[in-house]
Design brief:
three-stranded antiparallel β-sheet; mainly alpha; about 5% strand
Length: about 450
C-alpha cells in the first residue's frame, strides 16, 4: 500500500481493514460450505474467526463513519486507535493463515477433497497480501505516514493494550454520533478479547486452537483477564507440521506460549514485553529485509551489497531462530532437572548434571558483551556441547542442532537484574522447560553424520 494519501491515510487504512476483514469472513464461510463433513472442532474454529472478522470490520466502519461526519478530520487519539486496530487486523490475519495451514495438515475431511487444499492455499495467499501490504504501516505512526516520511517507529502499545476509547473527542459528534461512539467502545472491547499472544489450548490431540477462545481469555476482559484466570496449563508437546513453507521476506514474530507475566518472579513482565515485542520483532524485520533484498539482487544481477546483506541475513536470522527456541524452552512450569534420554546423554557427556549446569552457567556469565550460550547436539561428534555465541552468530559452529539457548544480551535481564548477569542466570534455571528441550534432543539425536 502506498503511503501517499497524506491526511487521508487514516481513512485509507480503515477502508483497507474493512475490505480485508470482509473477505476473510467470507473465506471462513466458504471453507465450511465446500467441506460439508468438516470436523466439528474446525467448524467451531471457523465460526469464531468469522465472529472476530465481523467485529473488526464493524469497528472500522463505525470509526470511518465518525471521520466522515467530522469532514474527514482526525486527532492524535483517534489516530492511535486506528494504529492499534491495524496491528490487531494484521495479527488476526497472521494467526488465521497459520491455523488454516494446520487445518490443511490435520483435517481428514480436507484430505479427502484434494481440490479444497488448493482453495485453502489460495485463501492463505490472499491474507498474506493484506499482511505484506500493511505490516510495515502497522509499525509506523499515522503522523509519519501522513507527512509522507518513511521512518519506522516502535509500536505505541502491544495489541493487548487496545483501549476502548471512542473517537468522540476527535469528531465532536452530536446526539446521533454519540451513539456511534458508544458502539465503538463496545466493539473495541469485544475485538480485544480475541487478540493476544497466547497459543491457547489445543484440544483434539494437540491440534492448534484459536487463541483466546473456549474457556481461556475469550471474554471482554481482554489482557487483564489473563492475570485472574485459572492456572496456566503446561503446554503439551505435540506433533508439528513439517510441510509449511516460509517464502522469502515472510517470517513472522511467533506468539509466546504463555502470558507475559507468567515467568515472574524470575523474569519480569516488562522485560518480556520489550524483549518479545520490540527486540525479537526487529530481528524478524531485519531478516525479511535481507531476504527480499537478496532476492532482488538475484533478479537484477546486482550484487554490490551482497556482503552487507549476507551479514544482515546471518545476524537477524540467527537472532530470530534463537529467540524462537528461547521462548519455547522456558515455561512457568519449568525448573527442576531433565529426565529420560537427555539426562542420560548429559551425564555421559559432562559427567553429571551438576557439572553440566556449572559449565553452562559459567559460559553464560563470561560471554563478552551481548550474545548467547547454547546447549547443542553435534551430529558429527555425536555428543552434546556447550557453545558461546557473541551477538547471535559469532564464535558459533556449523553442523550442530541448538537444543537449549539462554539469551545474555543485557536487554534480556537489565530491567530486573541490572548488571548482575549471574543472578539472572540463577533465576533462569527456574523456568527452563526440560520437556521441550528433551523433545528437541530426541529429534536431533536421529541425526548422525559420518564421524570425523
Amino acid at each position: 500500500m502506498l503511503t501517499i494519501y497524506g491526511p487521508l491515510m487514516p481513512v485509507r487504512l480503515l477502508e483497507e481493514i474493512i475490505s480485508w476483514k470482509n473477505q476473510e469472513q467470507e473465506h471462513t464461510v466458504l471453507i465450511q460450505k465446500i467441506v460439508p463433513d468438516l470436523e466439528p472442532t474446525y467448524v467451531q474454529l471457523l465460526e469464531e474467526w468469522e465472529h472476530v472478522f465481523i467485529k473488526t470490520e464493524e469497528t472500522a466502519r463505525n470509526w470511518l463513519l465518525a471521520i466522515q461526519n467530522n469532514n474527514g478530520q482526525t486527532d492524535q487519539a483517534l489516530n492511535e486507535q486506528i494504529e492499534l486496530l491495524l496491528k490487531a487486523a494484521v495479527y488476526q490475519s497472521e494467526q488465521f493463515t497459520q491455523q488454516l495451514e494446520y487445518l490443511k495438515q490435520y483435517s481428514q475431511a480436507v484430505h479427502n477433497l484434494p481440490l479444497v487444499t488448493l482453495v485453502i492455499a489460495h485463501i492463505v495467499r490472499e491474507s498474506y497480501v493484506f499482511v505484506s501490504a500493511t505490516q510495515t504501516l502497522a509499525n509506523m505512526p499515522l503522523a509519519a505516514i501522513s507527512n509522507n516520511t518513511a521512518q519506522p517507529a516502535e509500536p505505541k502499545a502491544h495489541i493487548h493494550a487496545l483501549r476502548a476509547v471512542s473517537p468522540s473527542s476527535a469528531a465532536q459528534p452530536g446526539a446521533d454520533d454519540r451513539a456511534v461512539a458508544q458502539t465503538h467502545t463496545e466493539r473495541a472491547d469485544e475485538i480485544r478479547a480475541f487478540i493476544g499472544t497466547g497459543r491457547g489450548q489445543r484440544p483434539n490431540g494437540g491440534k492448534p486452537w484459536l487463541a483466546g477462545s473456549g474457556n481461556g481469555a475469550g471474554g471482554a476482559a481482554g489482557a487483564q483477564s489473563q492475570r485472574s484466570s485459572a492456572p496456566i496449563a503446561a503446554p503439551q508437546v505435540a506433533n508439528r507440521p513439517d510441510n509449511v513453507y516460509v517464502p522469502p521476506g515472510e517470517h513472522r514474530l511467533p506468539p509466546l506460549p504463555y502470558p507475559y507475566h507468567a515467568l515472574e518472579p524470575h523474569i519480569d513482565e516488562k522485560t518480556m514485553r520489550i524483549h518479545h515485542n520490540q527486540h525479537h520483532q526487529t530481528y524478524v524485520d531485519g531478516l525479511n529485509h535481507a531476504e527480499l533484498a537478496l532476492e532482488e539482487a538475484r533478479r537484477t544481477g546486482n550484487y554490490d551489497l551482497v556482503k552487507a546483506l549476507s551479514g544482515e541475513l546471518a545476524f537477524n536470522g540467527a537472532g530470530h531462530y534463537l529467540h524462537t527456541i528461547f521462548w519455547d524452552t522456558m515455561n512457568p512450569h519449568g525448573g527442576g532437572e531433565p529426565q529420560g534420554e537427555l539426562r542420560q546423554q548429559i551425564e555421559r557427556d559432562f559427567g553429571s548434571y551438576a557439572a553440566f549446569k556449572q559449565h553452562f552457567s559459567q559460559a553464560a556469565i563470561k560471554v563478552e558483551g551481548g550474545g548467547w550460550v547454547v546447549l547443542v547436539w553435534s551430529p558429527r561428534s555425536r555428543r552434546l556441547e556447550i557453545l558461546q555465541a557473541e551477538k547471535h552468530q559469532n564464535l558459533s559452529q556449523w553442523d550442530i542442532v541448538p537444543l537449549l539457548p539462554v539469551d545474555v544480551w543485557e536487554h534480556a535481564y537489565y530491567l530486573k537484574h541490572q548488571n548482575k548477569r549471574a543472578n539472572y542466570i540463577s533465576d533462569w534455571w527456574n523456568v527452563v522447560y526440560w520437556p521441550i528441550v528433551n523433545e528437541r534432543y530426541v529429534h536431533a539425536r536421529k541425526l548422525q553424520w559420518e564421524p570425523f
